[in-house]
Every structure is written in C-alpha cells, then in structure tokens.
C-alpha cells in the first residue's frame, strides 16, 4: 500500500463505529481536516453489516485475537520527540463463546432435485444454494432501530445524511405470552379497534395509556409508585396480560424496571407513533450500518480522508497530551484523537457488561399472519427478556423467502427452543443457519489524555439515543464554539450546463 | 455482444468512421445531440427515435459514479465534462455530493446526470455502500502511466458489484476509461486493456484525456446510451418503492401549504 497520506490533521478518527462516524461528519462539516481509519476492509467494526460470505468469514476468524504487540522500542525511530507509545488492541476481544453451524445439506445434486420437489419446505435449501446468493444478505452484527421521533432521526434530517438512507416501518410489534405470539396493540386507536380485547379491558388500557401519555415531571399521578416497579403500577391497573404488553413491548422493560423509568420509556414509545405509519420504529433498508456509512460519506464530502484496511499500531503521547498515531511505519499527527473503546491500549481498556446474541437464517416467519417486513418480538421469561428482530426479503437484508432473525438477551436459548425448529416440526420456522456469541462492551477505564476521546461500541439498547448523546459530547470537546450539525447554507445550484452546442436544442423548433 | 462495437474502439486518438445507423442520414444528423459526436454504438431498439415524435418527454435523471485509484484524474474528468475546463489544482466543491450535467438527448429528451466523485473518500477501493446506492452507471478510471492503477480497476469493479446492482438485479453498466492518454510515458498496453475489459464485463473502454478534452464527451455519450437502454427495460417493470425517506415534518407541512 502506498503511503501518500498527508501527515497532519485536525482530527484523526480510529474505528468506523457509529459514534466515531457521527463525530467524523459533525467535525468535518465545521471545516476541520479529518482522517478516518479502520483496521478492517469494511465499515462499522462491531456495528458492521456484512454479506453472507463476509459474515461467515467474520465468524470463522471468530474470537482469535491476531494482534501481536511489538514493544514500545519499535516505534522510537518515528520521531525525535520524547514520546510514549501505547499499543492499540484488537476489537475481537469484545466477542467470546462464538459458535455457528449450518443445519442443512452441503449441496443437492442436480439430478436429485426434481424428485425431491414434493418434500416439505426447508428441505430444498442447501448451503451451496444459499451461499450462491451471498450478496443478497446484509447481516448486522449490531442491529438497532430508530425511534421515529428520536434523536437519531432528528440528526439525520438536520445533517441531511437522511438522503443516503431509506427506511421501513417496523410493522409487527409482537410479544410472546402464554406460549403464543400476539400482536401488541400499540396506540389508543389500535386498542380501540382490536378484536382480541374485550370492552372492559379496552377501557382500562385506554386509561393507562392516557395517563402515561400525559405524564410530566410534576404530575402527581405516579408518585405513590416512586419506589416501586413499573410492573407494580401496571398490575394494579390492568389484567396481567396487558400489563405485560406494556411492560415488555411498549416500555421495553423487565420485572425490575422502576416505575418512573418505565413510564418515561412507554411515553417515548407512544409519542413516536403516527409519524411514519403506525409503529414508533424505523429500520434502515440494507441494515443499520447504512447510517454510519451515510455519516462517513458526508465526512468525505467535506474533505475527510478515508482509509480502510489500515491499522494504527500505537498511540503516541507527549507528556500528558496525545501527540499522534503510529501507522504503517509513519507518524500521523493531529490535535485530537477519537478512538473506539475496543481499540484502546490495555492501560486504558476494561471489560464492561456483556450480553448473549444469536443470528439465525430461517425459512419461515415467526408471525406469518403479519405484514411482510420487519417484526419486533419481545420474549419475556421469569428473570429477563430477549428481544427478537426478524427481517424478511423486502428489507434488502435477505433473499426473498428467507428470514434473518437477530436475538439479544441472556435467555435467548429458551426463546430459540420455543420459537424455532431444528427440523422435524414443520409448524415452526426451521433454523437453516445459526450463530451465537457473547458481546462484551469495552469501557475506558484509565485516565486518557484530554485530547483523546473514546467511543463506546454497541450497547444493548434497541435505539441510538445514547450514541447520539455521546457523539455530541465528543463534538463539543473538539469544537466547543460550534453547534452540533449546524444547518448548512443552502446548496448552491450545481453548475448545470446547457448542451455544448445550444443551437442543437432549437434545431427543429 | 451489444456494446462491442464501441468497446473495441481501442484508441481514442484514432479517428473512427461513424458506424452507419439504419436511420436515413438526414434524420440522424438532426438528432445528433453533439455535433462532434460519432455513432460508435448502435442501439438495437429505437424507442428513443419513436418517442421523440411525441415531443414532451419527462426528463431523465441518472446517477453516475466515478471510481478509481487516487490521482488518476477522476475529478479532472468531471470538471472537463461539466465545465469544459482543466486546472491542475482543481479539487471539486466541498460539501456537495455530485456535479450536475444537463444533456439534451436527441432534441426531445432532457437527461440530467448526477456525477458522483469519491471526494477524498476511500483511497484504497473500499467504498461505502451508500455511495454506490441507486447508481445507473459507473466509470472506472485508471492512469495509463500507472500500471498499478490499471490492476486495481478489478478491485474497484468487484467492490461495486459486491455492493450494488441495478434495480432488476443486473450488474451496473461499467465503462473503463484509460486517462492521461496525452502523456508519452505509457505503462499499459492497448491489447491488455482490450482483453481485460472483455474478461471482466465492462461495457466498453476508451482512452481519454481530461487535460486535452479527448473522448470525454464521447465516452459519456456512450454511457448515457447504455443507461437509456437499461432504463427502457427497467421502467416497464416499474419498481414501486415502499420504503420511507425521512423528511422534516415542519418543512413538509410548509411545502404543502405553498402548493
Ligand atoms: N497529463 C494529464 N494530467 C491529468 C489528466 N487528468 C488529470 N491529470 C492530473 O492528474 C492529477 C490528479 O488529477 P485529479 O483529477 O485530482 O485526480 P483524482 O482521480 O480526482 O484524484 P483523487 O481525488 O486524489 O482520488 C492532477 O494533477 C491533474 O492535473 C490528463 O488527462 N492528462
Ligand atoms: Mg478527486
């Protein structure tokens, strides 16, 4: 690789995760000179969206940390200054307990294909057949949804990054309750028109939804539940089934969610209804990483330089200030460094909370009676809940007829056992492929120099609110005087030339 | 193959005899959008010629992306095509995704081209998918005096085909341009380019010089013609989009009020 990169910048950004990419665009818009690097050949690190080939490769490389530390001395020759070098680490450390397997035959010989036709669905798939359409898969490592009225949507519109991304409504909000999947009536009009809710329950539900919607800090209504759980409040006011609807699906909570937190989350959900259809959530076509790629594109349009497949081996510090990055035998210098937590040197990196995740490819929808598209299912168990996202062919994430299922939550094995089949049971979707792993959040533990800004990797929330907040916080440290994504002056009409020989147009007029 | 007529033009420097189109000569002359242009390429269908009799055609908008290694001349090529100028230090407009070029196509058709430049982005062949998204045509460029940039065109092609197709699932029509043909110090042989472009499913190739303005209009004309053909096929399928685009609710309201 040729090394014709300029050597000084205002900001170097290491890692193309969500927070890093938002910061990249925000900072570049103010006119700062940005260099954005990523050790991988794709965007997004643990936020990436991958084709099936790349996804399988990612799984195979698995948890193997390929990084070998070189020792500080190997960088000493890069500069005459008295610099201390901290070697970066591998994002692979965020993954553990990774297993995967195919649950279908390797290949179906041509000749056998015809007579096998009458077999039940699921049997006609082979690994080869699915791998042949690898590019039709866009599999997320960290899928997240957008609240229709949330901060991500607001920033996408304000920044105009929204023009790069299209969305689908999450059209089935579901819950697993009493051994069956049910649609959750989300809005008051849903409740009103629902056939599965009787008149008495309708009135109770409407009343609860109304008091949640009208909640403000001052409202005395919930005060008696100050030290109780949201479930306590719901159970006191609703039959258990509906209490669960609201707790798990609308407030995305669990048994321990405090009442006020639950009310606030439920209120947010309800306030996002009706903007883009009758669901509070949006899902980006082609996967979540479209968002971060949109921010990267904007950074590039504002002269940011991008270099993937490019590692920074060590971070150089002079006294108590960050100085530059050692990369590929040269020292790249900048005022600020924005870096993904997962890549932080060991002196600064600690392991935070973790969660189990699974990705399945299946042959049938978990909720065939629903609308085709995106389904969100909450699967509560006695001590926690799993969140299940199912994508069908029209999301551009999977070939028509197949489904991608993303599961988050420590009780996911129970959910998988009850919702899917490994073969035999034709009433349930069959698992053709499955991958399971544990995702650890990395945290910044040491005291970093002031001009290094660390970015969290994917957390376990369903939305991007925390990422936007973090990006804005970092932006304010780098550009204290500037507004976060200040609106741009109206785009000058791009030069639109008339045809080279104007007489042409009038030739036979 | 349809496009070989042009694909085998080979050298931009050699003056080609126009390929005769089956239209009467006078008619073809009138319909020629650019006076210096030759027909290197014969469309198999003549819908365009028929349609033009109906006069008012909705304008067409095409997104064209230009990719290739650093310094091969992508920005210069766009500048030459759009502004008909060449400056050594031109860097494109900061903050703008694409340059717009309006072409009057056979009198009755207005074609708007969005020319997307990679804008300092992606020095080494890994682009964001959002850049490729919804593209109708592609130019992959290399520098005749830089062998490495020629070899990398394959990586660029693979990156594109891996991340994006036309709406009907077929590969994006991709034209190979060998730029800086005004320079003496060539490192790539024509015969190699010729076989390479065939093996890798480019719709055609030619030498260009953004500096001298050689084959800049002609090559783009060829690409437009191919895109018009695809458009003809695709518009009959009529893909209805069910996806949502985010808009500012207040602005949307305002706009509705004005109407
Ligand atoms: N002789 C000659 N020089 C050219 C030609 N086209 C571009 N150049 C020069 O090549 C250099 C690079 O041109 P650019 O248009 O900036 O190249 P680019 O592909 O946009 O480069 P990046 O933006 O870095 O990816 C400039 O110095 C141009 O003047 C050409 O046709 N002939
Ligand atoms: Mg350029």
Automatic annotation (TrEMBL), chain A:
Keywords: Cytoplasm, GTPase activation. Residues 494-509 have a biased composition (Acidic residues). Pfam families: GDI. GO terms for biological process: intracellular protein transport; small GTPase-mediated signal transduction; vesicle-mediated transport. The keyword Cytoplasm applies. InterPro entries: FAD/NAD-bd_sf, GDP_dissociation_inhibitor, Mrs6, Rab_escort. The keyword Cytoplasm applies. It is found in: Cytoplasm. Residues 484-509 are annotated as: Disordered. One of its GO terms (cellular component) is cytosol. It comes from the Eukaryota. GO terms for molecular function: GDP-dissociation inhibitor activity; GTPase activator activity. Belongs to the Rab GDI family. This is Rab proteins geranylgeranyltransferase component A. The lineage of its organism: Eukaryota, Metazoa, Ecdysozoa, Arthropoda, Hexapoda.
TrEMBL record, chain B:
It is a lipid-anchor. This is Ras-related protein Rab. Keywords: GTP-binding, Lipoprotein, Membrane, Nucleotide-binding, Prenylation. It holds the Pfam family Ras. One of its GO terms (molecular function) is GTPase activity. Belongs to the small GTPase superfamily. Rab family. GO terms for cellular component: late endosome; lysosome; membrane; phagocytic vesicle; trans-Golgi network. The small GTPases Rab are key regulators in vesicle trafficking. PANTHER family: RAB FAMILY, RAS-RELATED PROTEIN RAB-7L1-LIKE ISOFORM X1. Residues 17-37 are annotated as: Disordered. It comes from Nezara viridula. Residues 24-34 have a biased composition (Acidic residues). It is found in: Membrane. One of its GO terms (biological process) is endosome to lysosome transport. InterPro entries: P-loop_NTPase, Rab29/Rab38/Rab32, Small_GTP-bd, Small_GTPase.
